[in-house]
Amino acid sequence: MNQDAAxxxxxxxxxxxYRERLGLTSFINASYQIRDCLRFDPxxxxxxxxxxxxxxxxxxxxxxxxxxxxxDGALGPDVVGSVDDLSMFDDxxxxxxxxxxVLEHLPFEYLGKSCQEIARVGRHALIYLPFACLVPEVTVxxxxxxxxxLRVRIPLFWKEHKFNGEHYWEIGxxxxxxxxxxxxxxxxxxILDEYHNWDWRYSYNFLVMS
Length: 210
Known about the structure:
This protein is of the alpha/beta class. About 20% of the residues lie in helices and about 30% in strands.
């Protein structure tokens, strides 16, 4: 249930526009989601935000019962709805809930309620979020014997994030340090693992248990 009557969830004007987003990062992100999800040997998975559909197709191919929820019915989800209100699902109905680059599409005050709903319906969850940062790196290699990469992550802590039509907030920007986001998630979940996806540096990923 929306907490702020002034907030109207954004939907796709043209569902076909998602085809334009089918790039390398889509496959990288899908690969990480599938790998992380399979760590829990799930039978039933809820995907919140269907995206381009890679995760749904692959998980179903692997024999997993997948339900997709999206705010936009034009994208062909199994259920139309918003992450902050999952009342159509039963408690612990799913082994894993995947919310990959979804929660930042709602104002920050919805984060707690959305996490509570995810925790109610799922035993485990993958919560992937955008991380605004610079990552200078140096790679030293003696092929094929030795490869070492040194990285430094510099959050954009001086940059005030402004709503860009999609994201209301991002980790690393002014007012949203990683420690704040981690603390909010820990209010609801036990964090089993967290990591920065160095193959797609815009993504910081949490694996959690309710």
